[in-house]
Amino acid sequence: MPTIMITGAAGFIGGHVAREAEHRGGLSLRLMSHRRPPAGAAAAGPAAAGPATAGPDPATAGPGPSPGSGFGHGHGHGPGAVVPGHRTVRADLSDPGSLRGVCEGVDVLLHCASQIGGTPEANEAVNARGTAALVAEARRAGVSRVVYLSTASVYGRGAFRAARPEDLVRNPGSPTSGSRAHAEDAVLAAGGVVLRPHLVVGDGDRWVVPGLARILRALPGTVEGWAARTSVITAQDLARLLLGAGLAPAGDLTASVYHAAHPVPVNVRTLLGAVAAVAGPAADPAAEDLTAVRARELLAARGIAAQGLDMLTSDHWFDSDPVWRDLRCTPGPDFEAAFKELAEGYRRALLDI
Q1: Tens of pLDDT along 86-104?
Q2: Residue 69 CA neighbour count, 13 Å, CB half
Q3: How far apart are CA 23 and CA 14, in angstroms?
Q4: Which of 62, 65, 111, 317 is spaced 20 to 30 A from 231 at the CA atom?
Q5: For residue range 231-290, what is the model confidence (pLDDT) as tens digits?
Q6: Angle, CA 88 vertex, CA 83 and CA 94 arms, to 5°
Q7: Residues with Cβ within 8 Å of residue 44, at least 6 apart in sequence
C-alpha cells in the first residue's frame, strides 16, 4: 500500500486531493497541515513532526492570479474531506526544523501548500526556502516522487493562446509568484513534477468566483465584449491530476512541467455569465460595452487592482492536453456542465460578498 503525504491538506486543493485519494482507496495517507487539522484525520503518531509553530498558514487555496488582482490566490478552506484513520503531520514550512522526519516511510509527496500574499519575506520563507527544505527531507527519506502544485501566474502578464510550458518563459510579477518559481526549481532539481493550473473553481473556493463577482459588481457593463478565452479546471479534476502524477509509472510521464486545466478553454463571457447567475442581480452586467480604460477607472475607484481585468480581457489559454494524455485520464465535464453542479454552493458562499 503506497504511502502518500499531502501538504496543505486542510486547504482548498489539498483537501480535495485528500478526498480523492480516500475515494480511490488502497493508499495510506499522511496529511501535513500547519494550523488546522484536516477534517476527520487521526492524530499523528510518534514519527510525525513536532507541533506547529507560529507563522503563515500554508494550507491555502489553489492557484490563480496574484493577490490584488481581485480574484485568484488566497487562503481558502478545505472541502470537508473526511479521511478517518490517516495520520496528520503538524509542521511549518517556514521552520525547517519542524520538517525533520515528516517524510519517513513516504513513497509520494504531493506538495499543495503555499504562502499566498503577505510579505515578500513570508513568501520566500514558506514557498522558496520551505519547499527546498521539504524536498531535501523527501530526498533524504527516499521518497520516490515529488509533485508540486504551482501556478500559471509564474509567467506574469501577457496573452497566452494554446501555450505550452516549453514555449514560455517564466516572468513572475509578484513576490508570491516569484517564490513559487523558486519552489518549482527545487522540485525540478530533485527530479520532481510540477503542475501549473490557471483558474481553479470548486467547493471551498473563496477567491476565484468571489473575486469575479466583485469585478462584475463594480462594472456597469461588459468590457470590449469579454471576448478572451481562459483556462479553468475544477478542484476535483485538479486533485485527480495531482494524484495521477504522483502514482503514474515513470515511463508514462513525457515532461516534468505540465499545464493543468480542462482541455477546452472557456470564453470569458461564458465564465462571467455563470458567475453573474449565482452572484445575484447586482452582478448582472448591463448592455453597455466599456472600454478597458474606463473599466480600469471604475475598478480603481472600488479598490480593485487592474490585473484582474487584464486576465479577463486577454487570452490566458494554456495547453493541457499532454497531462491528460500522459496520465491516461479523462477530463470531467466542461465548465458549463461542471459549474451547474457547483452553483448552489457558490450561491450560498456569495451571500456575504
Answers
A1: 789 889 999 999 999 999 9
A2: 29
A3: 14
A4: 111
A5: 999 999 999 999 999 999 999 999 999 999 999 999 999 999 999 999 876 544 555 788
A6: 135
A7: 87, 88, 89, 90
